[in-house]
Amino acid sequence: MKGKIIVTIDGWSSCGKSTLAKQLAKALGYAYIDSGAMYRAITLYFLRNQVNWNDTGEVTEAPNEITIAFKFNDTSRQSEIYLNEENVEYLIRDLVIAEKVSEVAAIKEVRTFAVAQQQKMGEQKGIVMDGRDIGTTVFPDAELKIFMTADAAVRVERRFKELILKTRTSPSKK
């Protein structure tokens, strides 16, 4: 295959999308883009800046103040998300963010902003991106689209192990 491509990984919650995406990006030497982290970063911005997500005017203006980037951390050997030049990789995993991210991600203006950012990140190709609607809405013409499923029992076990690991390794617990 000539040149770099866009790889999208979509699927059910806790079926291994991120695990596969990270491994595939590493093997290909591509950037890994965690679309869910983008929505979490936007939620963090909204909470920090007291953006009322029921106010269309505030929601429409907020993206003008937001920059999102992924940078590879040589120490952790992973891509980490930056919100307005601040590494927020661990902050966005907080329970407060998890409780609000669905509400914020459901806002049309937020989704429009995030999709535009994701598409811009894919302009140079050479990315692996996972998340909801990545292969249909964000990159409908991606060269490789993967949709993952898993048995419900497997998904529950994966999420349980993930939550246990996060509570043991959370920076706030150290």
What's the layout of helices and strands?
Blueprint: E1 6-11, H1 17-28, E2 31-34, H2 35-48, H3 56-61, E3 68-73, E4 78-83, E5 86-87, H4 95-105, H5 108-121, E6 127-130, H6 134-138, E7 144-148, H7 152-169
Parallel strand pairs: 1-6, 1-7, 2-6
Antiparallel strand pairs: 3-4, 4-5
Helix pairs in contact: 2-4, 2-5
**Record field, number of beta strands:** 7
Radius of gyration: 16 Å
DSSP strand (E) fraction?
15-25%
Task: Label the CATH architecture.
Answer: 3-Layer(aba) Sandwich
Task: Show unreliable segments.
Answer: none
Label this structure with key terms.
7 helices; 7 strands; alpha/beta; 174 residues
Short description:
The chain is of the alpha/beta class.
Write up what this structure looks like.
46% of the residues lie in helices and 19% in strands. By secondary structure, it is an alpha/beta fold. The protein has a single domain (6-173), classed as 3-Layer(aba) Sandwich (Rossmann fold). The strands form two sheets. It has a four-stranded parallel sheet. A three-stranded antiparallel sheet has the order 3-4-5, covered by helices on one side. The longest helix is centred in the C-terminal third of the chain and has 18 residues, at 152-169. The termini are far apart.
